[in-house]
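S1.2 Input.
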Amino acid sequence: MSLYVLDTDMLTLAERGHPDVASRIRASNPAALAITVISVEEQLTGWYAVLRRARDHASLARAYQRLAQAATWCGRWTILPHSESTIARVVALHQMRLNVGKMDLSIAAIVLEHGGVLVTRNRRDFARVPGLLIEDWSLPIA
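S1.3 Output.
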């Protein structure tokens, strides 16, 4: 059984109920689905930024509500850690000059460490990472 790891963008599509993504998730064994702690960081950081920009009580309350919803949503998934070995893998990937951003390299390293398949729409960047298996669940199944 393969481990399918949703990247941050795919996690957002799942949360918004994208039909093809939702269908693939429903068809998968829940034990075979995960996200990385990097995606949790990216999700929550986005809502922290909204909190800092809130200028009135209603906006602040909505931002806190969405932050709580994001935390709850992320907590439904198995969250893969960013360990010392994955950090070392990020350093090695960075030294290869793959022209891939730090957060994406971290996600890739975690997926590689766990022998998983990355579920992403971002083939352009992630395809540069040697050995990384990629699937795009936002596309209809042929």
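S1.4 Remarks. Residues 57-75 form the longest helix (19 residues).
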